[in-house]
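re: ur msg from earlier - yeah i can do the NAP complex, just paste it... oh wait u already did. ok heres what im feeding in:
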Amino acid sequence: MVAPRGRLRERPYRPERVLVTGASGYVGALIAARLLADGECALVLPVRAPSRETLIQRLKLELDAQGLAWEQAVPRVHILDWPGAGESGDGLAHWADQLEDSGVDTIVHCAGCLDYFDSASLELVNVQLTGDLIALGRRISARRFVYVSTAYSGGYRQDEIPETLLPEPECDPTEYTRTKRRAEWLVAESGLPWVVLRPSILIGESASGRYSGKRYGLYQQWMGLERLMTDRYHPVIHTVAPERPLNLVHQDSFQAAFSAALAWLPDAAVCNLVSENDSAPSMRDLWNLWIEVVRPEEIRYYPSFPSVNLRAIDIRQRAYLTFAQVNLEIGAHRWRFARGWIEALAARGLAFESATAASVLRCQERFVASSQVLARYRERFAERFPAHTRITEVEDHARTATAL
Ligand SMILES: NC(=O)c1ccc[n+]([C@@H]2O[C@H](COP(=O)([O-])OP(=O)(O)OC[C@H]3O[C@@H](n4cnc5c(N)ncnc54)[C@H](OP(=O)(O)O)[C@@H]3O)[C@@H](O)[C@H]2O)c1
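and the outut:
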């Protein structure tokens, strides 16, 4: 284990009024609900007007999961319209006037753009909006600025990702990781007391499998497969499924870790909010679980995306592979993360359940049980399901030309 820099605080940080950005989204709503469930602090939740209803619905859902009724929480919640990134033309300066005497002492910045292919929005939301919120933090003399980044912000590196700010890598998986890294640096150089949290990929709750996010990460894969490959039976499935560990974090473990990190991390801490490297399932493990759902006669595992002869395979499988390409490439890299802070927080009582193949199976089962499309598929093709699926490892040089 690489020890984190510094030590946990002697006394917990207790915010009084927290501004949480991104609460109409998945992670922001998880954070907002947890803050409300945790204690006495009040929340200010900026929201773009069209997303107000979504914010309320999401927050109700997550409060319910925390065992807290909306009516109980609502006196501590102040929802505030805001223009969001780049819309006000003055970097939120005018909008921020109303927060001057609001008593906000803490900013948790969670609004973000996750669209790998929209460079302009990535820059605007992940970099520029972070700069605007730092300016707000300075103006109100925030006591703590927490930035929700990503475990992949360091880009492709060969060594373990340390819990420090990261230099420019040789290459980035996407513009997303580059902009998140840039934002981390802005926060660290802001002059404010800051903390950076770097979650890996969020998935459903560890015990129930309940997932309340969008089609990101693993759910993008499952939903893609559900959408593209269930209208007929595919006797042979061609896919790329690297054996590298894929770091996933259960959303309830994320919430517990967020809460502990806010309370106990010292200023200027960067925390890789990730599961244990050694128990993380690989893409291959995840595909082996998925086989049990779709039950092909044969699955052909290719070592890399370029080794698949796309022209020779079924068009829907080609569509799936093309759409999953970036995530497959990221999954093929060997990612290892320092976990010093999570371990220090665990030693102090944090209950953090690392994601494993068994716990991901619970999430998959929940997903499958909620899918009418998959239920229809399993009913329709059950008689074609083999007792066992044959597994074929395709050699790198073999550009298999098996048309289905
Ligand atoms: N999901 C994960 O597995 C994961 C893992 C690691 C890190 N993260 C980080 O967590 C953060 C939130 O991710 P998420 O999964 O919760 O995404 P999400 O569900 O798509 O939510 C994104 C949030 O950002 C807000 N936002 C987007 N564009 C904006 C703009 N131009 N101006 C103001 N607000 C804007 C959205 O507001 P609207 O509702 O108005 O669009 C929404 O509240 C991101 O910063 C991401 O990097 C997520």
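cool cool. The chain has two domains: 17-104+106-142+144-192, 217-246+279-335+353-393. ping me if u need the other ligands too
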